[in-house]
Design brief:
The structure is a homodimer. Chain A is of the alpha+beta class. In chain A, 43% of the residues lie in helices and 22% in strands. In chain A, strands 1-3-2 form a three-stranded antiparallel beta sheet. At the A-B interface, helix 5 and strand 6 of A face helix 5 and strand 6 of B. Chain A binds a DNA duplex through helix 4.
Amino acid sequence: MPENQERFKMLLKQKGLKVTTQRIIILETLENRPDEHLTAEEIYECVKQENPDIGLATVYRTIQLLSELNLIDKLNLEDGYVRYEIGHQRNDATTHHHHHLICLDCGNVFTFQDDMLETLETRIQDSMNFKVVDHEVKLYGYCKDCQKKNPK
Amino acid sequence: MPENQERFKMLLKQKGLKVTTQRIIILETLENRPDEHLTAEEIYECVKQENPDIGLATVYRTIQLLSELNLIDKLNLEDGYVRYEIGHQRNDATTHHHHHLICLDCGNVFTFQDDMLETLETRIQDSMNFKVVDHEVKLYGYCKDCQKKNPK
DNA sequence: TTGGGTGCAAAGGCTTTGCATGTGA
DNA sequence: TCACATGCAAAGCCTTTGCACCCAA
């Protein structure tokens, strides 16, 4: 798990950037919550518990940095906040993301992996002459628990 | 094509809302650009040519109304603007959208329809107990023309 | 007539930026 | 030492809201 941290430090050095306490804490915070999808404000709240003096601007700047380095992924649920999650391990070199199931009732976000999209991409590539390099899939609906709570 | 307009007028009356010049012009503007994905500001600029006195707030309010009535679709390209397009004709009762191909080079947005997603949805429904009611798919890559311009 | 609609300007709310100070290498 | 990083507050920017006036029905 601290694999990401090593990678982060390496990438920072490579770019002539500095390894600061704040940057490490922010990455750790995200690593400790692998299945959550936190807003900048939520990350800020978590991080403040470790380092009360940190500024929200630093959170925003670090998030942006982590995102550029592909260590975290963005997720936009169209509710006015951009959310972030630690990048999921990839054993190949692709930048393909996993996908999201968003419950319209409780708002929970679940993730899934499916390689059917690869087939779709090939099809698009052939039929429309469009070279796909990345994709994003969001499925909206009702999760198991919410279906039970509100049957019908 | 003015089918949407009739539908709009009907829905407005049904809800006790009024058919105003502004509302009609805004819908017409979107109908006249079926393959574009306009921001509120862009819609405002177009609409001002028909009615220079219109206010940006009215555009925002009408867009929201049209969106709630499912006459237009939202599209978020994560560039800080929400975009809108006239709803594409559906001969069934589903709310499924078409999908988008977004060129990372020229920024153009292309649309495509593919029913493979239905299969994916069924699969998710079975394997994860998640009842899918809507979906959104975005494929990022390079369009035909940009591939020609920048071969590699 | 009258309740919804519009225009304008101001306010909101998330995110970015400027600047003086702090700090890792 | 010194360039990069941080904190704070201010500014940006898209969007929403308050309010007085306007106009479909």
